[in-house]
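Researcher: Please predict.
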Amino acid sequence: MKASLPPRGNSFKGEPLPCCFQTERHKLINTILQLPRSAKLSRVADVKTRISSVELLATLKKSYSYKDLSSVLDLSAPILSRYVRGHVLPSAARSEKFIATFREKLLRKMILDQVRVSADGSFDISTVVTNVGLLRQIAKVVYSEFGLVSVDKVVTMEVDGVPLATEVAGEFNVGLAVARDERDLGIQEFLEQKAVYSPSTVKYLYLAKSAIRKGDHILIVDDMVRSGTTIEALTVLAERSKAKIVGIFAIASVDQAMPKLRSRLGLTCPIESLVTLEQKSRRYTY
């Protein structure tokens, strides 16, 4: 890889696929429908990754020149132009490379550039969770990481986890379950879980019993993991519903929150965050 792209702003908007992809996409879908379930899941992930990489390239082209993209992706401008214009889909391997490069060289920096630190040292990523275009690209990265896993439901906690979880659920084409800190008057049956954030701070999470079914494969998504208490409570709610947790993802985590959470939960599924924020030194790592 050559030098990374120069920054050109962080406002990203989704780019629709060119019309000439529709025929090829329909052919791929028809082929997928004839496959057995296990092969079908792999094939769907493969096709979605290829399509997502083109959408990503089209989005990046709005902010960067072909020359810039060529220097990072190590592909000629004419080849990139063919992808962006919809003349051809990149291979699965090349698509994965595009998405991985976006994650490692661009996405993390875009997120870190929008992190704010308050006077008391708290981190604020509200500009990230309200940037719909950026969340859409993060969701594509999440799909590329968990796409080979069968996911039936995305689970999150209100309020800041909802925007990303909605985009992720859309990528997987599955439902969304949202835990709340108050009972919804319109719902009669809840699961209740206590979450202790500190000796003086205790909350209760409520999830409608109908939100998760027995045997569902659950992907837990949140905006930021500080202590891991909220994620831990969500895993308990999922397990009480007799569901299986297949992954945990957050945009950001603070200090050693993710390793500690992984140790406490004892899960073998992937537990990931895009960036780690170091509170004491206020440095960002990725």
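Model: The chain is about 45% helix and 20% strand.
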